[in-house]
Amino acid sequence: MTSYHNDTKIWEAINEEKQRQENVIELIASENIVSQEIMDAQGSILTNKYAVGYPNKRVYTGNEAINKIDNLAMKRAKELFKAEYANVYPHSGTQANQAAYAALLKPGDKILSMSEKAGGHFTHGQPTNFSGQLYDCYFYGVDPKTEFLDFNKINEIAKKVKPKLIVAGASAYSHIIDWTKFKKIADSVGAYLMIDMAHIAGLVAAGLHPNPMEVADIVTSTTHKTLRGPRGGLILAKKKFANKLDNAVFPLSQSGTLEHVVAAKAIAFKEAMQPEFKEYIKKVILNAQAMAKVFNKSKTIRVVSKTTENHEMTLDITKTGLTGNEGAELLYSVGIATNKELLPNEKGSVMEGIRIGTPTITSRNFNEYDSAEVAETIQQVLEEQDINTINKARQKVQKLTKKYKF
Ligand SMILES: *Cc1c(COP(=O)(O)O)cnc(C)c1O
C-alpha cells in the first residue's frame, strides 16, 4: 500500500482478494490473470477522459490521443480475428450481445439459441434477461446420449421456428464447434448468424479453434476469459453491419467509452498475436485434457460428453450425492475454486454439475502433471468427503499455489 492509499477499508479488501487469488487454485473457466501491462493501462489517467462517440466524431474536445488508442484497438482486433469491422467499446459481453441483437432485430423477433442447460449463456434468451423479455426466444440443446451438439435436431427446430437470428456459442461446452454447420442451417431458413465466442476467443486468436468470423454475420465476445485481456466486450462483423452496430453501441446502449479499458484491450490484442500466446493456449487445452483423463477413470465423476477439446469441462457429480452447489462449496473449502453448473439432461434446475477450466492455472504455469494432480484431488474430496482427505487436499493446494506464484 502506498501513502496516498487513504481508504484503508477498500485497500484491505483488495489486499485480501489478492491473497485469496494467490492461495486458491482457480478453476472457474471464465477467469484468467492479466499481465501487469494490462493492469497498468486500466489503472491509468485514461479513466479521467470522456470520449463519447467514435474516432474523429466525438461529442467532446480533446480526444487526439484517445483517437490513436481507439484506432489501434480496432485495427488490432480486426487483424487478430480477420474481421472487416470491430467495435471495442462494449463494456461487457452482455452489452456486446445487447448491441448485436439491436443491430439485427426488432423487439418480438425470433431468436434460436443454445439452451442454458446445454451450456448456452443467459443473454441468449433466458426469461430473466433482457434478451428473453425483448425477443421471442427458442432453444436447441445437445444430443442426450453423446452430449454433443445435434445438428440434425437444430436444423429441424430451425425449420419449425423460422428464427430471424440463430445464435451459436456457449459458456459450458467442451468441444470444437463447426460453425459452417450453423451457417448452413441459418442460410436455409434465411436467418442471420451471430456467434458469441466469449469463452473461446483466446483459442480462436491462437488459431486453435475455427474462427467464427469466417461464416458469421456478427461475432460477439468478452475480452477477459481465455483471451486474457481486461474485463470487457467486443463486437466483430462484416462491413455491411458497421453502421447499424456503431449506432447500436452508441447512442443506443452506451454513452462514454471506458478508455482505460479500451487501451488495455488494445494491449491484450497485441499480446494475443505473439507466438507465446499460442503456446499458452496449447497448454490450456493440454491441461484440461490431462484433468479429463483423470476423471474418466473415476466411477463417481463423469465428464459431460466424456472429453474436452478446449479449456473447460462440466462434471456430473450426482453419484457423489452432492449437488453442484455442495460440491463447489466443499472444493472451495480446500482452496479449489469451481462453479455449480446445470447438466444438459438434468430434470430440475438444481445444478447437478460443476464446471472447471484451466485458463488461470495455465497462466500460473501449472503443467499437465500438476493439472492431473489437481483433478485427483478434486476426485478424492468429492468422493471421500472426510476430514482426513480434506486436510490432505488443503496441503496439496498450498504446495501448488506456493510453487506457482503470479
Ligand atoms: C461470459 C459470457 C457472456 C457475458 O459476459 P459479461 O462480460 O459477463 O457480460 C456472454 N456470452 C457468453 C457465451 C459468455 O460466456
From TrEMBL:
InterPro entries linked: PyrdxlP-dep_Trfase, PyrdxlP-dep_Trfase_major, PyrdxlP-dep_Trfase_small, Ser_HO-MeTrfase, Ser_HO-MeTrfase-like, Ser_HO-MeTrfase_PLP_BS, SHMT-like_dom
The entry's keywords:
Amino-acid biosynthesis, Cytoplasm, One-carbon metabolism, Pyridoxal phosphate, Transferase
Source superkingdom: Bacteria
Localization annotation: Cytoplasm
List the EC numbers from the record: 2.1.2.1
Which PANTHER family does the UniProt entry name for this protein?
SERINE HYDROXYMETHYLTRANSFERASE, SERINE HYDROXYMETHYLTRANSFERASE 1
Quaternary state and interactors: Homodimer.
| Residue(s) at site: Plays an important role in substrate specificity | H224
Where does it primarily localize?
cytoplasm
What's the protein here called?
A: Serine hydroxymethyltransferase
What organism does the UniProt record list as the source? Apilactobacillus apisilvae
Pfam families given in the database record: SHMT
Instruction: Kindly list the cofactors needed.
Output: pyridoxal 5'-phosphate
Where is each Serine hydroxymethyltransferase-like domain found?
Answer: 6-378
Give the protein family.
Answer: Belongs to the SHMT family.
Q: In which pathway does it act?
A: Amino-acid biosynthesis; glycine biosynthesis; glycine from L-serine: step 1/1; One-carbon metabolism; tetrahydrofolate interconversion
Catalysed reactions listed for this entry: (6R)-5,10-methylene-5,6,7,8-tetrahydrofolate + glycine + H2O = (6S)-5,6,7,8-tetrahydrofolate + L-serine
Q: Which residues carry this modification: N6-(pyridoxal phosphate)lysine?
A: K225
Indicate whether tRNA processing appears among the record's keywords. Answer: no
Described by its record, this protein's role is as follows: Catalyzes the reversible interconversion of serine and glycine with tetrahydrofolate (THF) serving as the one-carbon carrier. This reaction serves as the major source of one-carbon groups required for the biosynthesis of purines, thymidylate, methionine, and other important biomolecules. Also exhibits THF-independent aldolase activity toward beta-hydroxyamino acids, producing glycine and aldehydes, via a retro-aldol mechanism.
